[in-house]
Structures are given as C-alpha cells and as structure tokens.
Write a structure and sequence with these properties.
about 150 residues; alpha+beta; GMP Synthetase, Chain A, domain 3; 2 domains; 4-stranded mixed sheet; 5 helices
Length: about 150
C-alpha cells in the first residue's frame, strides 16, 4: 500500500482545482485526513473575511456525510456573502443565537401563539368531551359507524 503524500498549505494553494479535488476525495475526514490543510485554511479565511463585528467565529470541521467545511458563524441579519468554497473547501454560514430586541419580539410572539394554540386545543377538547358525554352522541356514533361499514 502506497503511503499518502503529506501536503503543505502552500502546495495546496498552488494546486489546480482538479488536483485539489482529487486529493480531497482521497481523504477520510473522520480519521483526520486533510486536517493539516483545512485548519490553516480556516485561519487564512478568517484573516481575509473577518472584518465585521457580525462575524462571530470561523472554524473548521467535518460536516454531515464526511465533508470538511469551513464554518462561518455570523449574527442574525448579517447580509455579506462569502465564497461557496475557499481553495477547494466548502464554506458554510451558521447563525449565532438571537440577540436583544429581536429575541424579545420573537419570544413574545411565540408565547402569544402558543397560548392561543393551547387555549384553542383545550376549548376543542372540552367541546368534544361535552359532545361525547351527551345523550345524542351514542346514537350519532352508532349511525356514523353503520354508514362507514356499509
């Protein structure tokens, strides 16, 4: 079995996109293969793109399905765009937790919506219970089942 060549970041950056793709697809990220390239690329990406206070952090990791990614965490509402890939590694945007006034507004709206939902469900349950315990409910249910079974 041939041993895989150790790549340096400078060599990686000089490679053609096709050569990078070939090397990338040979890695098993779950075993750490490619980490020596992706970690310094994430730091390089951070130096180049972390100009705004809205960029919370830049990191690297293995995403679902075993793909290396450069993860950029930004504040909610951040509008700037990043490249989809950076020297052949996919860039993904993640959003930081909600902050301040937006968080309060959403929490208030959620609480109002959930209260209306619960009140509505309790009201519907009470109507159903009242109907099922009424004298006509048994007759209605028997007729309904007869019509369905026919």
């Amino acid at each position: 079995m041939r041993r895989k060549e150790t790549l340096s970041l400078s060599k990686w950056c000089r490679m053609t996109p096709a050569a990078r793709r070939a090397a990338y697809t040979s890695w098993n990220p779950y075993q750490g293969e490619g980490r020596q390239i992706v970690e310094p690329l994430a730091r390089l990406f951070e130096k180049k793109y972390k100009r705004s206070a809205d960029v919370v952090s830049v990191s690297q990791g293995v995403y679902h399905g075993g793909d290396w990614i450069i993860g950029v965490t930004v504040r909610v509402g951040y509008k700037s765009k990043f490249p989809e890939t950076f020297y052949g590694i996919r860039v993904m945007k993640f959003y930081d937790g909600l902050t301040g006034e937006l968080k309060r507004k959403l929490a208030t709206q959620y609480n109002n919506d959930i209260s209306r939902f619960i009140d509505g469900e309790i009201g519907a349950f009470k109507k159903c219970f009242n109907f099922l315990s009424s004298p006509g409910a048994k007759r209605w249910l028997v007729d309904f089942v007869r019509n369905v079974v026919k």
